[in-house]
């Protein structure tokens, strides 16, 4: 009997518990429906009414994470709208009073958002979605340490709850009820984590690193270049996945080298800087900013071939990163949009290519005729053929022995292929014309033979021989060699083309291109001849004939294949590299000291837009042809998580005014630095303000 009584009591208790659960679930669903009504109000534009309803709903249901999150989200969105409105009212200004107005407008809403979302976190501690939104509110309030903590928490919650349980936006519209399906809870958690990760990355790239860059550069000015270099290295180690941080390390290292004593050769120190930026450029292959710094430093060190390769690599980037995100100082690369900023860097690359060409020209002029000729303007057959095999792997590829046999037999370098049948080589334009009129009368009307003078070919091609002569000979090792005779134009002819990136092309491709051009001119001639009067004494005939003869002249020039042109296409890059190797290996060049003046001649001092007028050195930009492929696509950072404690690391970057005073009194100097490059031997301890927090007035944490 007693056992039955206990069982009955337990059944009643379980039944009452189930009822309570059902009642609680119904109440929670009723609160959620009320929250959805508030969201609908907001979507319809009744913003003030939505905020008021959300606050009343929160006060009536303080145990509900849903309503706290709702109130926080609505106030966060309102803060963003208020800041945008203040910015628009101030004419888009973001500095000084403009920024203050934005913060003042957004501050009260952000304070409510933080409190409400903090309450939601207390009620739903395992919700990734709540942590991510709270992190956004902290970041907008410039409370970066707190934001970082929430983002990290969102990414590391071990047993996360379903975001749909605490966010009324899931399933709020008819037909989207599946958004609350428990079977997809894991996907919703990953989406919330992705949002937190993206927000964390954006905050790091757009807020923390720019602040760190500013403080590091400030330290370099106030405490000395050595201290700036040390802090720049710290930032790079703290943010290894951001190009701007890695660039800062190289930038501050170069500033340190610039400050060395004038009696010291700066070349060894620049090699260290080069190693730093080379690693960064390899890690961020789409950063045009890093590529520009890398190429310029290579030029200063006299590594002209490597500098040119880096310029070409940058100009060939398919989707280069926006320079605004990488430049140091922040804002130093100007432009209304990404395309303009990339074009300004393209001008830098082309200017550097021009400088390389000018250095090569000066070096060429400084060489004696014997040095120019000896072992330099002579290229072995096997070398040319080896270079050619890199662009043409076909079994019947170009052979220099065949070229020599052709030239020795026909005493010329040129010939024509019939553009229609392509069966044989023609050395005489008259024979070519006769062949086409007989074999292809539909394409080339036979009457053309009586309208043009075949001897015109020599006149048409007389401007093709730029060199005084090219001969075949043997080198001392009895190897077949082609020799380029020295003339006044040899540098321009042999070496100017590589400066524009022109390289060798397969002979078959060159001949096919000429064949197609020839066909185009033949078609034009045929169309003109269709309307040509038969009466040679008529005015119409006299007016039409010169144009037909001109087209025949153009046909001969366009369709003639020149072996010399093909050889030059192969030899140019090879000889260009050889000339740069000689420049680099020249003992005088290697022994030359590098000074700050040499660095300053290539590296223009970059200034932020608020401190200087637009005087960026770009050379004669109107005359520079831009090759960079600019793609107007949105920039996205790769997903990453910084493993360091950002708050602790950024603490080390703060400059305490007391340390500045102590440093000014210190007479310690970096060995080899100029007298004005002083550094402190005092550790930067006990910073007054955490850089990851606001450095402004007490109310700044309530602002955007």
TrEMBL record:
Stretches the record annotates as Disordered: 684-704
Domain of life, per lineage: Eukaryota
InterPro entries: DUF629 (IPR006865), TPR-like_helical_dom_sf (IPR011990)
Transmembrane regions listed in the UniProt entry: none
SUPFAM superfamilies: TPR-like
Domain (DUF629) ranges: 362-452
The protein's name in its UniProt record: DUF629 domain-containing protein
Organism field: Digitaria exilis
């Amino acid at each position: 009997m007693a056992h039955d009584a206990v069982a009955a009591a337990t059944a009643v208790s379980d039944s009452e518990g189930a009822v309570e659960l059902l009642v609680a679930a119904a109440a929670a669903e009723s609160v959620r429906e009320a929250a959805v009504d508030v969201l609908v109000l907001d979507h319809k534009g009744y913003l003030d009414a939505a905020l008021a309803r959300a606050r009343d709903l929160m006060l009536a249901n303080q145990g509900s994470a849903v309503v706290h999150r709702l109130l926080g989200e609505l106030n966060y969105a309102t803060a963003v709208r208020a800041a945008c409105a203040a910015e628009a009212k101030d004419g888009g200004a973001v500095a000084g009073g403009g920024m203050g107005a934005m913060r003042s407008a957004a501050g009260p809403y952000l304070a409510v958002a933080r409190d409400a979302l903090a309450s939601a976190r207390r009620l739903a501690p395992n919700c990734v979605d709540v942590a991510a939104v709270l992190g956004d509110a902290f970041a907008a309030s410039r409370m970066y340490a707190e934001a970082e903590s929430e983002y990290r928490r969102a990414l590391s919650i071990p047993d996360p709850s379903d975001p749909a349980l605490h966010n009324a936006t899931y399933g709020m519209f008819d037909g989207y009820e599946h958004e609350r399906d428990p079977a997809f809870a894991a996907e919703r958690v990953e989406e919330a984590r992705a949002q937190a990760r993206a927000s964390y990355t954006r905050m790091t790239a757009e807020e923390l690193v720019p602040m760190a860059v500013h403080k590091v550069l400030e330290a370099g000015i106030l405490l000395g270049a050595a201290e700036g270099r040390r802090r720049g290295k710290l930032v790079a180690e703290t943010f290894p996945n951001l190009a701007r941080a890695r660039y800062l390390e190289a930038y501050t290292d170069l500033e340190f080298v610039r400050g060395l004593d004038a009696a010291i050769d700066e070349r060894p120190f620049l090699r260290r800087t080069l190693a730093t930026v080379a690693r960064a450029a390899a890690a961020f292959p789409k950063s045009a900013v890093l590529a520009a710094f890398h190429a310029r430093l290579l030029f200063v060190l006299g590594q002209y071939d490597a500098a040119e390769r880096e310029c070409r690599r940058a100009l060939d980037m398919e989707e280069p990163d926006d320079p605004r995100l990488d430049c140091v100082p922040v804002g130093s690369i100007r432009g209304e949009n990404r395309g303009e900023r990339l074009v300004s860097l393209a001008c830098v690359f082309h200017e550097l290519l021009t400088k390389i060409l000018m250095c090569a020209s000066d070096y060429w002029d400084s060489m004696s005729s014997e040095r120019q000729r000896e072992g330099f303007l002579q290229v072995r057959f096997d070398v040319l053929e080896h270079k050619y095999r890199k662009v043409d792997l076909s079994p019947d590829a170009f052979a220099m022995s065949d070229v020599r046999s052709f030239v020795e037999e026909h005493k010329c370098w040129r010939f024509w292929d019939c553009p229609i049948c392509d069966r044989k080589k023609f050395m005489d334009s008259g024979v070519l014309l006769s062949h086409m009129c007989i074999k292809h009368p539909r394409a080339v009307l036979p009457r053309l033979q009586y309208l043009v003078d075949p001897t015109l070919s020599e006149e048409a091609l007389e401007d093709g021989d730029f060199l005084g002569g090219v001969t075949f000979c043997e080198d001392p090792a009895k190897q077949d060699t082609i020799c380029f005779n020295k003339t006044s134009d040899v540098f321009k002819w042999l070496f100017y083309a590589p400066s524009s990136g022109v390289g060798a092309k397969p002979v078959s491709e060159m001949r096919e291109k000429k064949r197609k051009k020839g066909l185009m001119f033949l078609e034009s001639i045929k169309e003109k001849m269709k309307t040509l009067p038969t009466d040679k004494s008529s005015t119409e005939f006299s007016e039409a004939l010169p144009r037909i003869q001109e087209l025949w002249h153009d046909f001969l020039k366009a369709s003639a294949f020149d072996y010399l042109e093909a050889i030059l296409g192969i030899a140019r890059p090879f000889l260009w590299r050889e000339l740069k190797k000689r420049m680099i290996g020249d003992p005088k060049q290697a022994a030359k000291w590098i000074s700050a003046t040499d660095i300053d001649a290539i590296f223009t001092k970059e200034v932020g837009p608020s401190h200087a007028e637009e005087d960026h050195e770009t050379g004669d930009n109107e005359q520079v042809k831009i090759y960079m492929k600019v793609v107007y696509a949105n920039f996205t950072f790769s997903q990453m998580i910084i493993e360091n404690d950002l708050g602790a690391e950024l603490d080390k970057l703060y400059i305490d005014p007391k340390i500045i005073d102590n440093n000014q009194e210190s007479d310690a100097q970096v060995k080899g630095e100029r007298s004005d490059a002083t550094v402190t031997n005092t550790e930067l301890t006990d910073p007054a303000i955490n850089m990851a927090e606001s450095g402004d007035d007490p109310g700044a944490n309530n602002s955007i």
